[in-house]
Amino acid sequence: MADDLATVNLQKIDDYMASAAARGEDIDGILVDQVDRAKAAQASGDTAEAIAITGKVLERLERSRTA
C-alpha cells in the first residue's frame, strides 16, 4: 500500500512536469533532482523515503500554484 502512494505521488509529479513543459514553463532542476532521488529510493525498496521526498515535492508544487 505504501509503495502505491509513492507511485501515485510520482505520477502526479510527472503529470505536472509534462503539463508545465507543454505550457513552455521551465522545470526547476532541483525538482528533477528530487524526483530522481525519489525514484531511486523506491527502486531500492526505501518506500518511506520515496513517499517523504514526493510529499515534499507535491507540497512545493501546490505552494507555487497558489503563489
Tell how many strands the DSSP assignment holds.
Answer: 0
Run of helices and strands = HHH
The biggest sheet amounts to: none
Proportion of helical residues:
over 70%
Low-confidence stretches: none
Commentary on this structure:
This protein is mainly α and 67 residues long. The protein has one domain. Helix content is 84%, strand content 0%. It has three helices and no strands. The protein has helices spanning 2-22, 29-43, 47-66. The longest helix is centred in the N-terminal third of the chain and has 21 residues, at 2-22. It starts with a helix and ends with a helix. The model has no long low-confidence stretch (mean pLDDT 91).
Which labels suit this protein?
84% helix; single chain; 3 helices; elongated; mainly alpha
